[in-house]
Amino acid sequence: MSATHSDALVFFGATGDLAYKKIFPTLQAMIRHGHLDVPVIGVAKAGWGVEQFRERARDSLDKHGGVDAAAFAKLCTLLRYVDGDYKDPATFQELRKRLGGAEHPAHYLAIPPVLFGLVVEQLGKSGCAKGARVIVEKPFGRDLESARALNRILLTNFAESDIFRIDHYLGKEPVQNLLFFRFSNAFLEPIWNREHVQSIQITMAESFGVQGRGAFYEEAGAIRDVMENHLLQILANLTMEPPAAPDSESVRDEKVKVLKAIPPLDPAHVVRGQFRGYRKEKGVAADSQVETFAALRLEIMSWRWQGVPVFIRAGKCLPVTCTEVVVRLRRPPAIYGPPPPPNYLRFRVSPDVVIALGAMAKVPGEAMAGAPIELVASHPPSGQEMDAYERLLGDAMKGDNTLFAREDYVEEAWRIVEPVLKAAPPVYEYDPGAWGPAEAARIAPPGGWRDPAATPSEPRS
User: Fold this and answer.
1) What is the pLDDT of residues 151-180, one digit of tens each?
2) Which residues have C-beta within 8 Å of that of residue 128, sequence separation ≥ 6?
3) Closest CA to 129 of 85, 80, 92
4) I want to staple 283 with a disulfide (CB 3.0 to 4.6 A). Which of 8, 158, 214, 417 is the partner?
5) SS3 at position 279
6) In whole angstroms, what is the distance from residue 302 CA to residue 246 CA?
7) What percentage of the chain has pLDDT greater than the value 70?
8) 431 and 276 Cβ atoms separated by less than 8 Å
9) Residue 444 to residues 85, 200, 223, 270, 312, Cα–Cα distance (Å)
10) Element (H or E) spanning 60, and its range?
């Protein structure tokens, strides 16, 4: 059914925070762009009717992007609502009735992960899974064992081709640009290997804290929240082999091969940190050992990348909000004076898009002396980019799996981080506004971390 477009969209958790902040604005945008013209059925337990549901949609749009009168009017004609408990089979029998003649609905689970298995099993028992797709938000489990258990439930009720595991980061325009740049420029291929690359580093910095979500973060931490998914996805895009074809399975095959070549993390190569003040956040334990910062070193034991260390760090309450990749090349031999610094390629994927080449150029004057320069191509946000959720929901309804994690990818990602989850190294405190704890210097690339600079609109704290 991969070529069949979904003829209804059902979203569970319709009265929740994710729906309020992301999904209603996404639905309006899809209508504006001509990508949504099927019934949209919200399911939740709030004691509401459809009119209250429409008011919730309007309020969401007022707060998150604004109401487009024509698009919102169309959205109201598409909205349906089912009120009921997910544990009650009657809720799903009512959903089956509301689907009417729809034969290929897409069920989007915008609900807490603990409810995924329950809702999927109810969809299967009620017949709502027949001919349908299911879209699942991350996290896909808390570790390898729970990920496998969730996959067993999913695969009992849906074919793998009909399961769409969302990592919204993959839907972001700049992350797509990274993959496009990687395979659309011939000058990269001769140097994109262990012979020329000295190291790879990826930084995901956030200048804010947990923003009132302390209880959630206590269950996640930086490694589960962004490293196991977002940052391994960026690494896979950066280091995968060219796919045999642009179809979804060929692309996903190559991403899985990258993860298969990464040994499990050695806890000795991981440093965890926690910003001072985290334990005072609502929902956080007074003696919490959850990391708000992590730095790690790993290797890809493939022919192309063996011997090239990869360094990844992520954290909250850091100096800036930015995600950036730096690929350092090997140092050239010295001809004019002391050995020059290595060239590098820098990919900034948020908040703006920058592709930069670090090089050496002669300074004016009589002496044969040089200075480092950057050749920069930048693309500030234009407002024309498609939102990640709009892209991903649209792709799922079309049956395009390219930007979604496959079962084997999810399990390989958990395999890599599993040792650190089972035997976590100690947590070191750091001051908000620092680049993590001082101990993170032990996990640093040759030549040190390159700290992302602030954008003009976000000065350093």
Assistant:
1) 999 999 999 999 999 887 777 777 888 888
2) 10, 92, 95, 96, 99, 105, 107, 122
3) 92
4) 214
5) helix
6) 22
7) 96
8) yes
9) 50, 11, 17, 11, 9
10) helix 50-63
DSSP-assigned letter for residue 265: P
With cut-offs at 50, 70 and 90, classify the pLDDT of residue 381: low
pLDDT at 378 over 70: yes
Strand positions, DSSP E, 64-166: 79-83, 105-109, 133-137, 163-166
CA distance 215 to 36: 35
At position 127, the amino acid (one-letter code) is: G
Angstrom distances, CA of residue 128 to CA of 74, 89, 92, 155: 25, 11, 8, 15
Q: What DSSP string describes 151-213?
A: HHHHHHHS-GGGEEEE-GGGGSHHHHHHHHHHHS-TTTGGGSSTTTEEEEEEEEE-SS--TT-
Q: Which two tokens stand for residue 169?
A: 């980061």
Tokens representing 301 are: 């034991």
Residues forming a β-bridge with 105: 8
Model confidence at 385: pLDDT above 80: no
Phi, psi of 8 (to 5 degrees): -165, 150
Structure tokens at 404: 């979604």
Contact call for residues 271 and 428 (beta carbons, < 8 A): yes
Taking the C-alpha atoms of residue 9 and residue 140, their distance in angstroms, rounded to an integer, is 21
Q: Which distant-in-sequence residues (6+ apart) come within 8 Å of 127 by Cβ? A: 96
With 0.85 as the threshold, say if the pTM is over it: yes
Amino acid 91 reads: T
Contact between residue 128 and residue 96 where contact means Cβ atoms under 8 Å apart: yes
Is residue 379 annotated as a catalytic residue, yes or no?
Answer: no
Give the whole-angstrom CA distance, residue 346 versus residue 178.
11
β strands within 60-151, DSSP E? 79-83, 105-109, 133-137
Alpha carbon distance 64, 61 (integer Å): 5
Q: What does the pLDDT read at residue 460?
A: 39
| Residue whose structure tokens are 């989850």 | 421
Count of Cβ atoms closer than 10 Å to residue 159 Cβ: 12
Q: At what angle do helices 173-183 and 232-239 cross, to 10 degrees?
A: 20
pLDDT of residue 352: 83
Distance between CA atoms of residues 205 and 211, nearest Å: 15
Catalytic residue among 64, 230, 269, 379: 230
Rounded distance between C-alpha atoms, residue 133 and residue 125, angstroms: 15
DSSP state of 113: G
Pull the structure tokens for residue 206.
């956030």
Identify any residues that bridge with 79 across adjacent strands, giving them in sequence order.
40
Report pLDDT for 1: 39
Token digits of residue 274:
């926690």
Yes or no: say if 110 and 23 are a contact pair by the CB < 8 Å rule.
yes
Write phi, then psi, for 37 (nearest 5 degrees). Answer: -150, 45
